């Protein structure tokens, strides 16, 4: 991966982290206030669960961005094809899976009552399925990483044998 690509991705990650902190600090309290003002009993019923799900969803995005940052550091150092990378990939997979479950949970919270249209609940459920699909893509990428680590170890072993012969 080129230095420019790593730099560009780090800029995007830094902006994403800053934006997510802004959303946590400013936008979520505004959402809480909006959900509190003159809303019916259906909205009052879902206020706290929706806020908790939103905050946890933002946290899953932040965890993913930090792990990708760490993986980029490993790429820059040339150590990404090691067993240490699996820890970060596993955390990313877990965070994305948790985000999928949070989306399904949001749909379950919004489904009862008349305050939210059924189509919106269906869209939230569809988003949960798509997020789960992203988690599965990361699992496939983890398998590819495992193969690359095994090939790298095999290449080092063969190089060591060749060095002994020479």
Q: What is the share of helical residues? A: over 70%
Order of helices and strands: HHHH
Query: What coarse outline follows from CA principal-axis ratios?
Result: elongated
Q: Averaging pLDDT over every residue, what do you get?
A: 91
* Strand portion: under 5%
Low-confidence segments, given as residue ranges, are none
Walk me through what this model shows.
This protein is an all-alpha fold and 166 residues long. It has one domain. Helix content is 88%, strand content 0%. The longest helix has 48 residues. The protein is elongated. The relative contact order is 0.09. The model has no long low-confidence stretch (mean pLDDT 91).
Secondary-structure blueprint of this entry?
Elements: H1 3-36, H2 41-77, H3 84-110, H4 118-165
Keyword list:
166 residues; mainly alpha; 4 helices
Short description:
The protein has 166 residues and is mostly helical.
């Amino acid at each position: 991966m080129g230095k420019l690509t790593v730099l560009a991705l780090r800029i995007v990650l830094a902006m994403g982290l800053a934006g997510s902190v802004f959303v946590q600090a400013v936008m979520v309290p505004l959402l809480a206030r909006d959900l509190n003002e003159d809303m019916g009993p259906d909205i009052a019923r879902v206020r706290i669960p929706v806020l908790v799900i939103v905050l946890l969803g933002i946290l899953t995005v932040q965890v993913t961005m930090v792990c990708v940052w760490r993986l980029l550091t490993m790429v820059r150092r040339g150590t990404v094809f090691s067993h240490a990378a699996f820890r970060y990939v596993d955390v990313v997979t877990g965070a994305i899976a948790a985000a999928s479950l949070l989306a399904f949970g949001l749909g379950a919270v919004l489904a009862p009552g008349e305050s939210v249209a059924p189509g919106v609940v269906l869209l939230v459920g569809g988003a949960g399925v798509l997020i789960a699909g992203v988690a599965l893509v990361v699992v496939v990428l983890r398998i590819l990483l495992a193969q690359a680590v095994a090939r790298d170890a095999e290449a080092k072993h063969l190089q060591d044998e060749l060095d002994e012969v020479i």
